[in-house]
């Protein structure tokens, strides 16, 4: 995955023990240049920088001078999860505050395409004790640069994307999908529609395949005509809901990829003059705060965001203290919260 | 407001120029003891500490050693504004990030009664460059301790409580209240109900009195039977909405104290079988994100939370740089956002 050729001898060192001097030698630069890359300083040619970063990643460079780090745990969002952010921040803060550390907030929303590097530079120049990157934020240049820096890093991952080279916290999407589908089956639904998020996300696959498995083990099949995919947004929930409710044989219930999509289906039902839950059952995923406010209160699968923040904070502080993080992947359980948006299908 | 007796000579110094040594002399303690109080250190008797803090506040102590502060602007919430928090944090971050500072997050939600002091101790011990306290968080022990510490402090205040001794950012609640009421009057409503927040908040008074003024200048009166007050919550909106909609002569429109109350009224209307906007118009206040998702999308008065965070950050950085902040109170404009929850009254 890199075009740099590692020195054979250095390659035999265990991961995480390579030094700045070794990286400098391999890259053909001075040690201060490597330090500049690690600390987000400017004034280094892009190709030099990328060569150094590739070597740092390849050799699994880790910081050994964490005692001089600033007492901050930075939480980085990508802007897509703003409706989840406060619960996550609270979970992180609960663990971090009593150690005398600050919980830092960074959001990549609305940044220019090259802003990832600038944001990562700024973040690294603050020399944080650790970084918690919330899913989409961990992709691309930004993430590459963070992993290269050797700063203690944990991915908090509501999208179910296991990251094998970085410790991460997720939830049990599959079990949540099963619970949601079984709830509808138990109520007597047989024509169940599914609105999913973008198929590139593993959580989307897990929830969709769980719904299929629940139906098939109940002796039914998931009708492909009743499956729609779109963004994790209100707008796509509205449009895809409109499509499903406009079918000649419309579903009596819809499993949604997240709560925002479910709110969109609510609006599609309202426009179509269909009452929830009497004429249509709707199930969300996430259990964000507005799920309790919508009319009627939404049945949904709860992801424990505060607990995820809590777990991620414990992991990142352990990494910062030089302790091993085992297991490196944690999945917290989801739970079905039954409210008023689900009922038996109309007779 | 304090039982300490200030030295006459020290009392003649302009506010903000008193030294640690002077405070120590007035309090009858050593300078290191005053420094401990300023930096949230433990091991000082409560009465000594309170005496020192009272003197610091009285003399308007300000830090002069801000160059040694940690590059963090801390944003402190009280837990009541979690649905507003991310937009505020983004606004703060936009200003702060390019200066190389971290945006810190603290939430007092769910803390024990004495936790305010512990939280303030932790916050001060981090020696932040500045603190932005979001309204309710600025009350009580916590706020007293922050003002005593001399740390650059700005109050971000969505509740319209002007604070005369601390720079603050609010919004034009009165104008927002006028715009909301006039919108309903223009649609032809004459029986207008009002659900307000807790009457102790100035924003609540401003919005209620604005509604009354709009009605009276239109030749109408605000019927006291149609006014209800409660917490800024979904639950209180639901209960107070239920009361208003159960009246023999129910209102054709309801002005709500915030969006959460409006969502409660939506649910009360749904349970009463009343369609919005055909049979009932509803107006919120705040324009939080779920306002676009509820069925139907909510007409509401927008408070520019990101702009407030932006303004508060600029003020706190100016204070930290030793620059004067004039004016010390900023009010950003509110604006009516007309969506689908308002229509002419039923014929």
TrEMBL record, chains A, B:
Keyword terms, alphabetized: DNA-binding, Transcription, Transcription regulation
Q: Classify the source by domain of life.
A: Bacteria
Q: Does the keyword GTP-binding apply?
A: no
Q: Which residues form the HTH lacI-type domain?
A: 18-72
CDD domains (alphabetical)? HTH_LacI
Q: Which GO terms describe its molecular function?
A: DNA binding
Full protein name: LacI family DNA-binding transcriptional regulator
Please give the organism: Dactylosporangium darangshiense
Per the UniProt record, the lineage of the source organism begins with: Bacteria, Bacillati, Actinomycetota, Actinomycetes, Micromonosporales
């Amino acid at each position: 995955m890199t075009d740099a050729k590692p020195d054979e001898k250095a390659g035999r060192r265990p991961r995480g023990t390579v030094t700045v001097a070794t990286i400098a030698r391999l890259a053909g630069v001075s040690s201060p240049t490597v330090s500049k890359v690690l600390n987000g300083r400017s004034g280094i040619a892009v190709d030099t920088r990328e060569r150094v970063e590739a070597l740092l990643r390849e050799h699994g460079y880790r910081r050994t001078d964490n005692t001089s780090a600033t007492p901050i745990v930075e939480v980085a969002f990508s802007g897509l999860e703003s409706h989840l952010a406060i619960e996550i921040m609270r979970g992180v803060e609960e663990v971090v505050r009593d150690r005398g550390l600050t919980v830092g907030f960074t959001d990549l929303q609305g940044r220019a395409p090259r802003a990832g590097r600038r944001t990562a530079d700024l973040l690294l120049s603050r020399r944080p004790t650790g970084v918690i990157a919330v899913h989409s934020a961990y992709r691309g240049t930004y993430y590459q640069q963070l992993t290269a820096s050797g700063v203690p890093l944990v991915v908090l991952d509501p999208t179910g994307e296991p990251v094998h080279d970085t410790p991460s916290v997720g939830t049990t999407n599959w079990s949540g999908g099963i619970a949601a589908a079984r709830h509808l089956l138990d109520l007597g639904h047989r024509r169940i529609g599914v609105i999913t998020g973008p198929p590139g996300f593993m959580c989307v696959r897990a929830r969709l395949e769980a719904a299929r498995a629940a139906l098939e083990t109940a002796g039914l099949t998931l009708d492909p005509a009743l499956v729609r995919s779109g963004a994790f947004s209100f707008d796509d929930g509205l449009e895809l809901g409109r499509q499903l409710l406009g079918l000649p044989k419309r579903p009596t219930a819809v499993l949604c990829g997240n709560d925002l999509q479910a709110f969109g289906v609510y609006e599609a039902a309202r426009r179509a003059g269909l009452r929830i839950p009497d004429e249509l059952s709707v199930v969300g995923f996430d259990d964000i705060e507005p799920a309790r406010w919508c009319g009627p209160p939404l049945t949904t699968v709860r992801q424990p965001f505060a607990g995820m923040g809590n777990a991620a904070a414990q992991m990142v502080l352990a990494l910062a203290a030089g302790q091993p993080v085992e297991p490196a992947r944690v999945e917290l359980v989801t739970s079905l919260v039954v409210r008023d948006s689900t009922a038996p299908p109309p007779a």
